[in-house]
Specification:
alpha+beta, 5 helices
């Protein structure tokens, strides 16, 4: 998966050497934002393991870059680890703080949706911390619909936080999963 977009932005699969830049992007959101409920930023080696794990499952982990600098990352992973969830993924997307509002998130999430579809997912969920308005708007712009809200489920920066759940169909699910016998043991 690679492709140039306006302004020289390239969206491609993440590589292990991207881990340090991914860690820096995420650390800002952990330290200053409520979109993530992490309270301590994970180190670069955590992100290397995450890239390997996501990609080993055949799921997409993408980055948006220009001129060697990463501006954003996103990945889709199975929503929960129980076998019956194997066709449903959750997306995660984070844009470097100085690049917000430049259309990078829209381009990256659109690419992630296509890559998740190609990976065999039929539904994508967004679990949006603190009902972050920009994230809700981004997901709505790309066809996600409101699927629920959970009140006071996180506590960060001295206050209780809600989450908003959004959902997007990627492909119409078959009535029968041809791999069902592989998943149910």
């Amino acid at each position: 998966m690679a492709g140039a977009t306006e302004g020289g932005l390239t969206i491609r699969s993440a590589r292990l050497e991207d881990s340090a830049q991914i860690a820096m992007i995420y650390a800002h959101h952990v330290r200053h934002g409520t979109a993530t409920f992490d309270t301590e930023p994970p180190p670069a080696d955590h992100w290397g393991g995450k890239i390997e794990s996501v990609q080993a499952h055949g799921w997409p982990f993408l980055v948006a870059e220009a001129e060697g600098a990463l501006f954003a990352f996103a990945y889709a992973a199975q929503f929960r680890d129980r076998p019956a969830f194997c066709h449903c993924c959750e997306d995660s997307i984070y844009v470097r703080i100085d690049r917000l509002g430049h259309g990078i998130g829209t381009a990256l999430l659109a690419a992630l949706i296509e890559a998740a579809r190609a990976s065999g997912f039929t539904q994508m969920l967004a679990i949006i911390g603190d009902a972050e308005p920009a994230s809700v708007a981004l997901h709505a712009r790309l066809g996600f619909r409101h699927a629920g809200r959970m009140d006071n489920v996180g506590y960060k920066f001295g206050r209780w936080l809600d989450i908003v759940c959004m959902q997007r169909t990627l492909v119409a699910p078959d009535k029968e999963d041809p791999h069902e016998s592989d998943h149910l043991a």
